[in-house]
Specification:
Keywords: Cell inner membrane, Cell membrane, Membrane, Transmembrane, Transmembrane helix, Transport. Its main location: membrane. This protein is an all-alpha fold and about 300 residues long. The longest helix is centred in the last third of the chain and has 37 residues.
Amino acid sequence: MAKFNLFSEESNKSPLARFWKKFKTNHPALVGLWLFIALVLLAVSAPLLAPYGVNQQHSDALLLPPSWHDAGDVRFLLGTDDLGRDVLSRLMNGATYTFGLSVVAALITTVIGVLVGTFAGISRGIRSSFLNHLLDITLSIPSLLLAIIIIAILGPGLMNTVWAIILALLPQFIHSVRNLIVEELSKDYITAFKLDGASNWHILARGIFPNIYEHIVVIFTMALSTAILDISALGFLKLGAQPPTTEWGAILAENLGLIYLAPWTVGLPGVLLFLAVLSTNLVGDGLRQVLKERKAD
């Protein structure tokens, strides 16, 4: 009887509660989630928490190493650059550009990708064939190269970079959502919906989306990881954010000549980029693992 009660209690939990119970057993994914949340909070609150202005110069503190170094200064926890600007303040502010704008780009991509991918999945005939061929052509081009082509048309700049990333990520997102829709449409429960006279909207809202929203979250994490790398790469190539903007890739490019003289000005933004991509990948891997276990069950 006790076993039956436990089983009943487990079955009465919401899908989200069961999902979280499985997800939190994956410790690397859980660490990635907390790191991801910390980066989101940093991106939102950086202008309020930064100890100095991002372009505030301290002429008496040029190229100071981090404070734990013998030559460091406690006023500048992560040191200063060649213009006497506080590295910590610039990196905190850069989270808003690199990580924050990547999240915005991935969210916009998700909304557009779900809408267009759904349309592509339920379309038939010439429209479906045209969309499939268009997706095949665009998917043959790497996202970064596609973003560079778009930047060449729009011109360099931070906002143009965001739009370029969105347009570069869309083909893969649309393709993934379309495949999910097509896979669901072939299942027996969809046939039952159609036999009951359900409309396409009812089938999508009540049947398909409740079964694929977790997959869409996984695709979102993959898109976010790619967006972070592409925005930083464009900034590093001086095609995206322009100095003195504190985007992490632009900071790397700006301080590249100081790599031997002041390695912290290059290493620290590189570490933050690594952590941002690592956190999204860990969360994405954790989500994929939970989905695999649910399919096995």
